[in-house]
């Protein structure tokens, strides 16, 4: 208004997500996406993959997460039938063979999650699936994991975040009990669901010993992939407000520089540079360990991406990790 940007407050949310049409994929160059094949997390078993969202929001309140700001700390769901209809449409009309669920929390409503996975089996929809955006571990159990596997799940990202219960409960405020993690990972390995988790270090109040607990847990779990990210004070999050209030934001802090491998927080316990170096080093050490332990598995997983996009792959390792780890 008058040349100024005005953000109106959000007054209502769409409750009936089944009332929304399926995305107008006919307007998109779907075949080009498959040719380029750059899925979230760089991993897909089939080039004929696409994304799908079955719910909006999450009921947890992790301090770093923008989901609650975006969706209003509510959890709204599409019905299992509506989700299955869209998947059938994708298979039939676009030849899709792999779905990437991009929900914030696909299994938060366990009964609906069961209906989707059982529905894939009952309707004989023969697809593979992944959940690269993460699945809340506290919603899982062995029965659900087995059903996930039978319905085509070959991998999902776990949001363990920290290997230190104090950091999880008191700082991040994630409702995850670490005691649950090891048995679940064991079941995933038995079922041959690939194990991958994101971890985050560098929260205000976190000590270097607690960061070490995170690296140690990742090693102990022997995951097939571990990402070590750095806490990013995204606008509107509680993390941002804490850092701003305590004067922890780096001098010249700029939202446009926020990226999960950039460190922008200085606290009495650590400097931004120390955290950046630590995250990059641990990532390289972890992945070198994976390569040495299981070179065939490593190549099966990354070989295709490296061979298809060698410059991109080398550039990413050098710029995002090696330079930070050394300097
Ligand atoms: S559980 Fe995941 S989606 Fe929910 S608030 Fe925490 S980080 Fe965000």
Short recap of the structure:
The protein is an alpha/beta fold and 327 residues long. The protein is built from twelve helices and eight strands.
Describe this entry's structure for a reader:
The protein is an alpha/beta fold and 327 residues long. The chain has a single domain, classed as tm_1862 like domain (pyruvate-formate lyase- activating enzyme, Alpha-Beta Horseshoe), CATH 3.80.30. Helices cover 44% and strands 13% of the residues. Strands 1-4-5-6-7-8 form a 6-stranded parallel sheet. Strands 2-3 form a two-stranded antiparallel ribbon. The structure holds iron/sulfur cluster.
**Element order: H for helix, E for strand:** HEEHEHEHEHEHHEHEHHHH
Rg for CA atoms: 20 Å
Question: What is the CATH C-level name?
Answer: Alpha Beta
Q: Give unreliable regions as ranges.
A: none
For the record, give the distance between the C-alpha atoms at the N and C termini, rounded to a whole number.
47 Å
Shape: globular
Bound molecules: iron/sulfur cluster
Level of helix content? 40-55%
Under the CATH scheme, the architecture is Alpha-Beta Horseshoe
Biggest sheet features: 6 strands, parallel
CATH superfamily: tm_1862 like domain
What percent of residues are in strands? 5-15%
Number of domains: 1
| Count of extended strands | 8
């Amino acid at each position: 208004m008058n040349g100024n940007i005005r953000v109106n407050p959000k007054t209502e949310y769409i409750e009936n997500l089944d009332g929304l049409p399926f995305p107008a994929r006919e307007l998109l160059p779907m075949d080009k996406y498959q040719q380029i094949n750059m899925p979230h997390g760089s991993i897909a078993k089939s080039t004929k993959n696409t994304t799908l969202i079955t719910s909006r929001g999450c009921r947890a309140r992790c301090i770093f997460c923008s989901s609650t700001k975006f969706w209003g700390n509510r959890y709204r769901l599409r019905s299992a039938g509506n989700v299955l209809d869209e998947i059938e449409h994708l298979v039939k009309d676009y030849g899709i063979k792999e779905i990437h669920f991009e929900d914030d929390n696909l299994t938060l409503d366990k009964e609906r999650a069961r209906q989707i996975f059982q529905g894939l089996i009952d309707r004989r929809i023969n697809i593979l699936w992944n959940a690269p955006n993460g699945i809340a571990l506290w919603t899982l159990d062995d029965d659900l994991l087995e059903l996930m596997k039978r319905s085509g799940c070959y991998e999902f990202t776990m949001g363990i975040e920290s290997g230190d219960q104090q950091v999880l409960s008191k700082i991040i405020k994630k409702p995850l009990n670490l005691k649950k993690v090891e048995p679940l990972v064991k079941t995933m390995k038995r079922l041959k669901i690939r194990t991958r988790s994101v971890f985050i270090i560098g929260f205000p109040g976190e000590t270097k010993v607690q960061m070490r607990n995170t690296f140690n847990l990742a090693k102990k779990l022997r995951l097939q992939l571990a990402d070590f990210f750095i806490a990013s004070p995204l606008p509107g999050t509680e993390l941002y407000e804490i850092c701003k209030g305590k004067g922890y934001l780096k001098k010249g802090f700029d939202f446009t520089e926020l990226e999960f491998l950039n460190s922008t927080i200085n606290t009495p316990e650590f400097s931004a540079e120390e955290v950046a170096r630590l995250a990059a080093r641990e990532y390289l050490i972890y992945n070198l360990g994976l390569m040495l332990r299981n070179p065939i598995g490593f190549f099966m997983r990354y070989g295709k991406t490296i061979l298809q996009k060698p410059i991109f792959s080398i550039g990413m390792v050098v710029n995002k990790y090696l330079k930070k780890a050394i300097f």
